[in-house]
Amino acid sequence: MSDVIAFIGGGNMATSLIGGLIAAGHAPGSLHVAEPDATRAQALRDRLGVRVAPSAAEIVTGAGTLVLAVKPQQMGEALRGLKPDAGACVVSIAAGIRLDFLRAALGPTLHYVRSMPNTPALYGCGISGLYAEPGTPESARQRAETVLRAAGQTVWLNHEAELDAVTAVSGSGPAYFFLLVEAMREAGVALGLAPATAAQLAARTCIGAARMIEAGTTDVAELRVQVTSKGGTTQAALEHLESAGLRPMFREALAAAARRSKELGDQLGSAQ
Ligand SMILES: NC(=O)C1=CN([C@@H]2O[C@H](COP(=O)(O)OP(=O)(O)OC[C@H]3O[C@@H](n4cnc5c(N)ncnc54)[C@H](O)[C@@H]3O)[C@@H](O)[C@H]2O)C=CC1
Ligand SMILES: O=C(O)[C@@H]1CCC=N1
């Protein structure tokens, strides 16, 4: 199969993945994108030097890998009437969209991988869950791995349904951290700090804490204990967060995200 990778949809996630592939040494000329939004299309040409066409039909022929990067609700329309080359590997990054849906839309002669990346892919420090059915050739798995590895780490899953949980934890996860930084800087302002100072303190603290997690030498629970002096300030804050129900709140929030991922699949699964 050819080394050409065709992206259907050239939005935020596709742009991150394409940037990662180019940084990993892929020739921009081997990356083709279907993007109907003229402004986005031009930005992709100018910034990344890839070939961009307004519709998927113009780029799928000759591609060994297709990356489906439209919104779940746009997928049915985006795939209608497409005829990729037999044997090509189709990698979907769309939340909720199931392999059955893709096979019904594109036929049985292709190989399918479903994945869930996240936005830190933009800096090559994302993480993606991937799933392919048993019997999917190793070469197709490798094609998917190539795309997602350029965005960060990959984790292969044993069951397709696990992707709902992956979406809840890591797909949507960056937003939880951004909300936390927003809340911390708002709290800093409420305590009398200048907005810019509160923003700098909150952001840098999260980045520093992330670096400590990344070092991987100490479990996060132990890292938390190390900050928490007995009878001190951290303990006062953490007791408040725990008694206000932060942990059950996270369990419920992530359950809502996983439920929504499953619902998207249920709704769109019957939309063919
Ligand atoms: N944004 C995120 O954090 C993550 C998103 N995803 C998934 O990635 C997918 C894309 O999300 P984003 O990049 O955030 O959305 P986006 O809206 O930035 O990108 C989608 C792009 O598809 C284009 N498009 C629409 N119809 C099309 C068609 N028929 N043919 C070709 N292109 C078409 C749109 O013009 C748009 O540029 C979604 O399915 C989402 O579930 C997965 C992981 C994380
Ligand atoms: O919110 C969403 O539906 C997408 C999937 C994971 C992150 N963003």
What descriptive keywords fit this protein?
binds 1,4-dihydronicotinamide adenine dinucleotide; binds (2S)-3,4-dihydro-2H-pyrrole-2-carboxylic acid; alpha/beta; 8 strands; ProC C-terminal domain-like fold
Task: Describe this structure in a few short sentences.
With 272 residues, the protein is α/β, with parallel strands linked by helices. Helices cover 51% and strands 13% of the residues. The protein has two domains: 5-157, NAD(P)-binding Rossmann-like Domain (Rossmann fold, 3-Layer(aba) Sandwich), CATH 3.40.50.720; 173-257, ProC C-terminal domain-like (ProC C-terminal domain-like fold, Orthogonal Bundle), CATH 1.10.3730.
Account of the 3D structure:
The protein has 272 residues and is α/β, with parallel strands linked by helices. The chain folds into 2 domains: 5-157, 3-Layer(aba) Sandwich (Rossmann fold); 173-257, Orthogonal Bundle (ProC C-terminal domain-like fold), CATH 1.10.3730.10. The protein contains 11 helices and 8 strands. The chain has helices at residues 12-23, 38-48, 75-79, 99-106, 138-149, 162-171, 173-190, 195-215, 220-227, 233-243, 246-269, and strands at residues 5-8, 31-34, 51-53, 65-68, 89-92, 111-116, 126-131, 152-156. An 8-stranded mixed sheet has the order 3-2-1-4-5-6-7-8, sandwiched between helices. It is elongated. The mean pLDDT is 96. 1,4-dihydronicotinamide adenine dinucleotide binds next to helix 1 and helix 3. InterPro entries: 6-PGluconate_DH-like_C_sf, NAD(P)-bd_dom_sf, P5C_Rdtase_cat_N, P5CR_dimer, Pyrroline-COOH_reductase. NADP(+) binds at residues 8-13, 69-72.
